[in-house]
Amino acid sequence: MFIIKHKKIFLSISVILVLLSIASIFIFGLQIGIDFKGGALTEVVYTNYRPVQADLDAQFKTLDIGSILIQPTGELGYIIKSVDLTEIQHSLLLKTLSQDGKNPLEEKDFNSIGPSVGRELTRKAIIAIVLVSIGIILFIAFAFRKVSKPVSSWKYGLMAIVSLLHDVIIPIGLFTILSHFYGAEVDTLFVVAALTILGLSVSDTIVIFDRIRENLRNKIETNFNDTVGRSLDQSYMRSIFTSLTVIIVLLSLFFFGPESIKYFALMLTAGMFFGTYSSIFLASPLLVLIEELQTNKQAKK
């Protein structure tokens, strides 16, 4: 009952976080990775020791081959993302990485992704997100088709979509900060993280909505507000503990996993946290708010 009683506070927190995230997206923007805009990916492993990243960054600035992003991998390796390279530029990059041959290295991988491939990946990523969103809406509309009083079944789906937008926008806003200050780029893992957040978030929301549906059928309370409050009391701890177990695994990946998936794990962690928050403190209170608005509107007629 506490959550429903103070619903305006929790709804205000969500609105503020979403607005801050949108502002961050417009102010900082997102760095698009080579997966989508095309470019070259080079992975090297040093034989003796790995040079300091700041020293290599300083040397890269003297090269006339565009922007270069370098990320450590393993104990002795680096992953270098750059624009598409010619053979001469590729040789110059390896020469710089080896510090003019003074620090031997082995090139483990070199891939070049053309702009056309990047555009195709972008198109498929957008289609995947749209199809997943449509699938979620259709599923919720079907699952709650028999729930019509006092809130129409389609409004459950609408509130779930509002929660999904909340759960995706906030992690993206956080990612723009990582992108601006730490050079994190939007790649295929970013899209996977967004799709995963959509799935995990909506499953949590549906569990709570299903409890509301059952309690409405059983008429455990006399009014909608109390029914939603009782449903949250019965299910919020389950949602928190379930999400907490996933967050612990994701944090383990962030702290102990390979460098290449750290941002992926961090974005998923944020998505799980805010997804749990929205399922408990946003979606259900919004249902109550809609019911109150309907009641007030009917009372005025």
TrEMBL record:
Domain (SSD) ranges: 125-289
Transmembrane segment boundaries: 9-34, 125-144, 156-182, 188-209, 240-257, 263-290
A GO biological-process term: protein targeting
Keyword set, alphabetical order: Cell inner membrane, Cell membrane, Membrane, Protein transport, Translocation, Transmembrane, Transmembrane helix, Transport
Coiled-coil intervals: none
Matches recorded under SUPFAM superfamilies: Multidrug efflux transporter AcrB transmembrane domain (SSF82866)
Top-level lineage group: Bacteria
UniProt topology in membrane: Multi-pass membrane protein
MF-aspect GO terms: protein-transporting ATPase activity
GO CC annotation terms, alphabetical: plasma membrane
Record localization: Cell membrane
NCBIfam families, alphabetized: transloc_SecF
HAMAP family, per the entry: SecF_B
Family: Belongs to the SecD/SecF family. SecF subfamily.
Quaternary structure and interacting proteins, as annotated: Forms a complex with SecD. Part of the essential Sec protein translocation apparatus which comprises SecA, SecYEG and auxiliary proteins SecDF. Other proteins may also be involved.
Function: Part of the Sec protein translocase complex. Interacts with the SecYEG preprotein conducting channel. SecDF uses the proton motive force (PMF) to complete protein translocation after the ATP-dependent function of SecA.
Protein name, as recorded: Protein-export membrane protein SecF
Lineage summary: Bacteria, Candidatus Nomuraibacteriota
